[in-house]
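Bench notes, afternoon.
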Amino acid sequence: TPSRTSDGRSMKAHSAAWLAAVALAAGVARANRPDFREQIVVPGGRFGLGTDHIEFPLDAEGPARPVTVKPFVLDKYEVSIDRFAEFVNATGYITEAERFGWSFVHEKALDEAVLQTITQAVQSVPWWLPVDNASWSHPEGAASDASGRGSHPAVHLSHADADAFCAWAMPGGRLPTEVEWERAARGGKEGRMYAWGNKLKPRNKHRANIWQGQFPLKNTARDGFKWAAPVDAFGPQNQWGFHGVAGNAWEWTATEWCDPARPAPDCRGKQAPADAGDVEWVKKGGSFLCHKSYCFRYR
């Protein structure tokens, strides 16, 4: 089913590229690696969206409420750099970060030469720095490139970029709604803290790429990755076989975000219309920069 979403120009730092869309298929098969085009049919049904165990009220993830969803198809993996490159090579698409000429990068990912050129920061999140020419193909700016990272998730992508990819990948391809995303992420289970269960590290095994250590000062990388990881690095995260629904990279949805002061069922129970303008969009799953002390969205 084609989505009807905005082409709003809101730029999001390290916005995740789980552009896996309903009825979406596109990708590059790599030797000795999974076929990142693989899809999963998600059964329809009634389930509990959100949670009553609120860590950060501003996330507006509660209260839990029953919702019903129809069956749909979703890609098994986050969209990798190789997959996004195929789209760009086929269409000549230029992302918003490329058009704007900059994007945000975490300060710890930058070398001293680049840091010396930056004179601005966001006061509330000073670790995010505006870096010239940072984009999906140059994740840390012009001096970097994506060589050797083709299996990593494509980042520096806006909601409009995600929509464009989905529409190209298959007729009717679109981003999942928040309800569809959470249905897939839960994998048919109810009342679990994480996609795989209630323990962050069952049997002392890391199940997702998140920040370890003191955020934002030091990432100990005990999960094996300081920054983004390959989209298949941690194996399936739930019983339906989805990868990357928790951690690694934020994932856009086709659902409009709203102020937490508005009751979530009233505000987030619908898809935003195509003429919604410059709206905010619900993002799910957290990223490699999430730590429970600051960002618990990988729950």
